[in-house]
Hints:
Elements: H1 3-14, H2 20-31, E1 32-34, E2 39-41, H3 44-48, E3 54-55, H4 61-74, E4 79-82, H5 86-93, E5 100-102, E6 107-110, E7 121-126, H6 132-144, E8 148-152, H7 160-164, H8 167-171, E9 173-180, H9 186-191, E10 198-202, H10 214-221, E11 228-230, H11 236-247
Parallel strand pairs: 3-4, 7-8, 7-9, 9-10, 10-11
Antiparallel strand pairs: 1-2, 4-6, 5-6
Helix pairs in contact: 4-5, 6-11
Amino acid sequence: MDLKQLEQLVDSLKHGDLSSREAAKRIQESLYEDIGYAKVDHARASRQGFPEVVFGKGKPRPQVVGIVERLLQKSESNLLVTHTDAETFGEIRNIATTAEWHETARLIRIMRDRTDLGMGAVAVVTAGTSDIPVAEEAALTAEAMGSRVDRIWDVGVAGIHRVLAERPLLRRSRVVVVAAGMEGALPSVVGGLVNVPVVAVPTSIGYGASFGGVAALLGMLNSCSSNVTVVNIDNGFGAGFVASLINRKWEPSAE
């Protein structure tokens, strides 16, 4: 429940259109809703800047659909389901006809608000084409949170001229997300080219000594580019989320 909805509820209570018990029930339900197998967090947008995102992996399909249905009932915001499949999308499409299936990122997106909330654009960059699924999850997340996104694919350090050719676009960005596997060197290179935050995403792409992305993670954590920060292995969603918060235009509180 946002501030406007809370004001409407208080007015209804004051004018006798709503009982105290019903008002209390609505306030309670606006925080979270216990549906047995999940406590659906309806207040997350007001606390963290975006509604609860449904992580699909490991959940039975009816539970994912049930959570999505409750979130849609209580909010007009955009909604994401990550790490899911086409069959789940088919069922969600029955309750939300505007739902989009993004196969590369294994992500369902429901866009109900396309307001541009960013100070600039978020650039999402990959070292190789194998990193695109993680990077696309970041890009789709950032767009759902109101950022404009520029995608720059396959500019890894093995062909350094490719990323150097993208310097004008990178320098126009407000935040840069860089997804890379193998040794994870690209975020350090990009960090040396721009004066904005770089959110590095280690991916699990690489040969045996990459240890499923641990080598890239450690390389990024030890970056000598001071503007580089790092999220977890394959966490495109987290990178897109934090990049959008950095990019977002905040209006001063009326208080």
